[in-house]
Design goal:
The chain is mostly helical. The chain has four helices and two strands, in the order ββαααα. It has a two-stranded antiparallel ribbon with strand order 1-2.
């Protein structure tokens, strides 16, 4: 969220969210960076491009949420070998 007033411009985080859900997703992303090679690679690639830790972590979490939604739609379990093939193709 951006607030502008004359000469100043401040970018702030929105506070209108479920705090418990926000904490759960943050910890999910943090542990994914530590334990999942695909998430770790994505995180460090974003950091190398100049993104800060919060921005890179949000991108990792966005990917994890996309995967979770796809699994729910298809009714399947997570298979790391499929995820590795798809990330290698990108």
């Amino acid at each position: 969220m951006t607030r502008r007033s004359g000469k100043s411009r401040i970018v702030m985080r929105r506070r209108a969210c479920n705090r418990r859900l926000s904490n759960a997703v943050y910890n999910w992303g943090r542990t994914a960076i530590q334990n999942d090679p695909i998430s770790r690679t994505k995180y460090y690639a974003l950091r190398a491009r100049g993104h800060g830790h919060p921005r890179a972590l949000r991108s990792v979490v966005d990917r994890l949420l996309y995967v979770a939604c796809a699994m729910l739609k298809k009714g399947t379990l997570f298979d790391p070998s499929i995820a590795a093939k798809e990330s290698a193709a990108m």
